[in-house]
Every structure is written in structure tokens, then in C-alpha cells.
Design a protein that fits this description.
This protein is α+β, with helices and mostly antiparallel strands and about 240 residues long. The chain contains six helices and five strands; from the N terminus they run H-H-H-H-E-H-E-E-H-E-E. The chain is elongated and about 105 Å long. GO terms for molecular function: phosphorelay sensor kinase activity; protein dimerization activity. One of its GO terms (cellular component) is membrane.
Amino acid sequence: MLHHTYFAGTAALGIFLISLGVMIGLTLRIRRLNAEKDRAVALAQEQQEQQEQLARDVHDLVGHWLWLASIKSELAYRHAEGDARLRRDLSEILQAVQHAAHAARNVSQAYQQLSLQGETTRAEALLSSFGAYCSVRMDVTDLPDDVSATLGTVVRETLTNMLRHSRVTRCAIELTGHGGRLRLTVANDGASRREPASTGSGLGNLGHRVGKLGGTVRVTADGDGWFILIAELPLNFSE
């Protein structure tokens, strides 16, 4: 009788241990599957973010150059009387289109080459070709590459919108640092006195870019024809 009871107890213990082993195995398997699922979700999200970033890059780079090409086309027609001027303007159109094609092929590399200094210099030259005056003041220098590229994109996109939507004659670009913040201000006198400042997809893209560095973008029109864009970033950047 005792032998039978001992055998039954041992069998029950064995079944319990086997069941426990199976449960532990299933639990570990479920955890591995959940971890794999989490990694797959994270990878999918990363790929989606990369695709969205690519779309923003294409908008900022290719869109800019194509709009510049159309603007230069209008300028060429205005001065069609002189063949030399026409040839020069058409040459600039060709260069702009070539830049667009190049940016489409090398969008990531092209974005890395953007800089605030380069874009402000180009803005001065381009606005001058339209008979507009552009002043630039930089109180902060030696910016990190990613910050310089982001603020350069802000200037580039704002310049594109400026020439596309307004009749600018004066523009002011200023970079200042105060209160632990960097502030980039781009203002022009070509805003409509009747319509509010535009907040289209281009400005939304800028907000996303600047937001990735912990900053903000806001726009306003003062009622006297001035459109003002302000981008602010933390002044002390962490690696």
C-alpha cells in the first residue's frame, strides 16, 4: 500500500514537473515571439520614418530647384528683348533643372551639404537678381553640422515660398542667441495685407525638421506687408 502511494506521488510530481517545464518553455517561446514582433514593428516604423524623411528631402530640395526654374523662366520672358540676357537666364534655368535631377539622385548627400552660411549667401544673390535687398546678420557662428543644415533648409524653403507667393523688395535674415536658445528670423515685405500667413506643407516640413532638434517654427504677418518666420532651437546642443 505504501509502495503504491509512493509510486502515485512520484508520478504526480513527475507530471507536475513536466507540466511546469512545458509552461516555462511556452512562456519563453511567447516572450521570444513578442520580442521578435516588437523588433519587426520597430523596424517597420523606422522604415516608414525613413520614407517620410525621403519625401521631405525631395520636397525641400527638388521642389526648391523646380520652383526656381519656373521663376527664372518668368524672368527670362520679361527680358526677352535682349538676346544676351535671355541666353543668360535660360542658362540659369538649365542649371536649376540639373540641380533638381542631381538632388533626386543624391538626396541624402545633398541634404548633408546644406549649410546656413551657404543658403544665406545664395539668398542674397538670388534676391538681388530680382531687384530685392537682403540683409544678413549672424551673431552665432560655428554651428554643429546638423543644426547648420536644418537652419539652411529653413532659409531655402522660406526663400522659395517668398519668391513663389509674394512681391518681395526687402528681406532680413538674422541669427541670434539668447536665453539658452538660438533664434533664426527670416522676414520679408512681400506678404499679403489681406490674407493670413501661409502654413502649407513646406512650413509643416520645416516644423518637423526643427522639431527633431528640440526646436519650434512659427510664422506671422504684421499687417503692413511683412511676413516673419521664426525658428528657435536649444542653444546648448547635445551630441
